[in-house]
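Quick one, tokens below. Sequence please?
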């Protein structure tokens, strides 16, 4: 080497999408742009043609190892993406299941609370009925005792008056 760098032409791998875009650009510029403005149509067509040639050269001369490495990396990334998407789906299903379970538990709690409230209400009404009954029986007893007292006093008066009449 006489002081010059040994430049080797290298090709980078291009995807099939790049070839499709360059072909589409070339055809579209010829069909749609060239009739309206020949200068712009020629410029776009030449860019599309250069891109098409580069994609063909990349297919033919590109480093196979680099393409394989790229494809392997892309495959690993997709598998990782699919694994994480599955985990996310599973966690969403788990969240849905937990929400349903929470709703069922809340419904169960509400039913139990209503049962407890109804039982306590029944106890209160029973207690109130007992109190009313007790009041009625005590008032009846009082009436009976008052009536029996009145009868006794009436009998005593009758006896006293009858004794007075006999004496006279």
């Amino acid at each position: 080497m006489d002081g010059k760098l040994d430049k080797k032409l290298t090709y980078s791998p291009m995807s099939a999408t790049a070839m499709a875009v360059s072909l589409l650009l070339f055809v579209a510029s010829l069909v749609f742009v060239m009739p309206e403005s020949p200068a712009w149509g020629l410029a776009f067509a030449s860019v599309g043609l250069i891109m098409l040639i580069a994609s063909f050269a990349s297919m033919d001369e590109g480093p196979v190892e680099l393409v394989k490495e790229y494809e392997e990396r892309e495959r690993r990334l997709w598998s990782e993406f699919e694994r994480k998407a599955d985990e996310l789906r599973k966690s969403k299903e788990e969240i849905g299941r937990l929400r349903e379970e929470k709703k069922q538990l809340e419904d169960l709690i509400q039913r139990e609370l209503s049962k407890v409230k109804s039982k306590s209400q029944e106890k209160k009404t029973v207690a109130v009925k007992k109190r009313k009954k007790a009041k009625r029986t005590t008032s009846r007893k009082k009436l009976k005792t008052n009536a029996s007292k009145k009868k006794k006093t009436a009998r005593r008066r009758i006896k006293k008056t009858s004794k007075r009449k006999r004496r006279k």
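Residues 10-62 form one domain. The helical segments are 16-33, 38-61, 64-167.
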